Amino acid sequence: MILKKKTWPKFFKEIKDGKKNFEVRLADWKCKPGDLLILREWDPKTEKYTGRKIGKKVTYVLKTKGLKFFSKKDIGKYGYQIIGFR
């Protein structure tokens, strides 16, 4: 499946440069390994797409709803950090 999503210029550049190899998204849409994620650069200042886009193959999806690793108190205090690695 081909999925298209916005990404802000800072993150687009980091993905393009190979520094960022993950995405953090609200899980209000379906995504699975093997899907093609098309990230379209969106400028929040102009509220328009820049015309640049990059495609990435989804290799792993972690959904956090229902995970019982952390207490609600600790989540509220610290939040989550998503760690990418190779």
From TrEMBL:
Signal peptide: none
Residues in DUF3850 domain copies: 6-65
Gene3D superfamilies, per database record: Hypothetical protein
Superkingdom of the organism of origin: Bacteria
Protein name: DUF3850 domain-containing protein
